[in-house]
Write a structure and sequence with these properties.
Strand content: 5-15%
Structural class: alpha/beta
Shape: globular
Low-confidence stretches: none
């Protein structure tokens, strides 16, 4: 690259920001994440959890100030009936759960084997497994959402889990290695232009999908609506409904909640199918949004997207 070309690029604020992040910020935070991740593997599950609960509020105060301010604002909008003290308690628990879930990536293989996971309404899953139909599990980023994959595999499904790769390439490697140790890496599909074709082939073979419908896209958390206009196109929920219609798939909402450090609960909501009509699609989208909103509002302290939501 010529010096004149480089000088022109340096004058471009977007180019500078992108390259500073790629060559300086990402390696810096990636190095810290690597040290933390592999250091935490030497701890017990109990001590790993303690570290997470300690680091959460600390990270919010020093590393994620803007996101923390957003959490405070969101809680004031979503829970105006609560006292400032009660909302502060939810805020602290939210950051503790986020950090604890991040720390648990170092021990996912151990946690999936050693923790107690209680499945509520398991008969819904058992019935779906015998129905000889493709299944689409929908969920939200609550509790430790990574554990659902192992549970679905144990229940006899071959799930393909759609996920959005994290921006930091170093953090992405940590996530992939953690899933590999859990023997679940092959069940994850990164979002890409070809992802939909792969998902269609998977359903066509009679297998299962797992899709989070509280996705963050274009600077906003699209679902649940939480008093906003319901998005009905180009969302994970809309794709789920369209796929269910096309492949006659059963939709099963599942939600994960952290009960204690060594105890999780997976709640299975009643499965439903979607008829091939516009009205059925609209009704299904409203149903998914209602279910998701109810679960999120009852578990705000465990909802990862609380700090990403713009209200």
């Amino acid at each position: 690259m010529k010096l004149t070309d480089l000088l022109k690029k340096l004058q471009n604020q977007q180019w500078r920001k992108k390259n500073i992040r790629y060559w300086l910020k990402d390696p810096f935070w990636g190095s810290l994440d690597y040290l933390t991740h592999y250091g935490l593997r030497y701890l017990s599950i109990e001590n790993n959890a303690k570290v997470g609960r300690f680091l959460g509020p600390l990270s919010a105060k020093y590393r994620f100030k803007v996101a923390d301010a957003r959490v405070k604002h969101n809680l004031s909008v979503l829970k105006p009936e609560l006292s400032a003290q009660a909302r502060e308690k939810i805020r602290l628990k939210s950051w503790q759960n986020i950090a604890q879930s991040m720390c648990e990536y170092s021990l996912l293989d151990k946690i999936s084997n050693d923790t107690q996971v209680k499945i509520e309404n398991k008969h819904y899953v058992d019935t779906a497994a015998k129905a000889n139909q493709p299944v689409i599990f929908v969920s939200a980023h609550t509790g430790n959402w990574e554990l659902r994959t192992a549970e679905l595999i144990d229940l006899g499904f071959n799930p393909l889990c759609l996920y959005k790769p994290v921006r930091n390439r170093f953090a992405l490697k940590i996530v992939i290695r953690a899933r590999t140790r859990m023997l679940a890496a092959k069940h994850f599909l990164g979002s890409s232009p070809s992802a939909m074709r792969t998902m269609c082939e998977h359903l066509n073979n009679g297998d299962a999908l797992w899709v989070a419908i509280d996705e963050y896209k274009k600077g906003q958390v699209l679902s649940p609506s939480l008093g906003r206009n319901l998005e009905t196109s180009a969302t994970n929920a809309s794709y789920v409904v369209r796929l269910a219609q096309r492949y006659n798939a059963i939709i099963i909402p599942i939600w994960t909640k952290r009960e204690q450090d060594l105890s999780f609960r997976i709640k299975v909501s009643k499965p439903f199918s979607v008829a091939k009509s516009k009205q059925a699609k609209a009704d299904a989208l409203i149903k998914l949004d209602t279910l998701l909103e109810e679960w999120v509002m009852d578990n705000l302290e465990q909802w990862y997207m609380l700090h990403e939501l713009r209200l």
